[in-house]
Amino acid sequence: MGEQGSTEKDLIERFFDGLDKFTPDLVSWNGAGFDLPVLHYRSLLHSITAARYWETGDGDNSFRYSNYLSRFHWRHMDLMDILSGFQGRGRASLDDIAGLLGFPGKIGMHGADVWKVYLQGGIARIRAYCETDVLNTYLIYLRFELLRGNLSPAEHAQEVARVRKFLQESAGEHFKEFLGAWPEN
What we know:
By secondary structure, the protein is mainly alpha-helical. It has helices at residues 8-22, 31-46, 51-54, 79-83, 94-100, 114-119, 123-148, 153-169, 173-180; strands spanning 26-28, 76-78.
């Protein structure tokens, strides 16, 4: 996660180092349209090497048909893009889909507020905003995995219960607020 005093370069290097070490699947909401291009440009600025991320099968054949960059591959799942059928007119916001599914959605801040909050020194507030975005995205992802048949209803319920337990045991005020805004079904 990085610390509040971490530099941008440190945070980006840590992200790409994690990809190099673990080769995880990435799940995002509009990640291909916003988050990843920002990382691309900022990596250029800081001269950050991210060989695993940019791999498309030339060095590792397993990346030929599933890599982080290709739109129709699964190593990076941009849920907004997938659920819209890869059609711009079918896109919906994270907040709208989270609300549709009964999740809290955006709490107290939106993406358009980030720059202003940053200029005011509100790194902790931005971090809390990002962490609740991750929670919404993860909960939508769990529902998507249920939809795809990759989770049974019992497995889905178990994963959702794990998220609730995490929130109940967390000290962060934003986690308590998220849990308070998330009615139990």
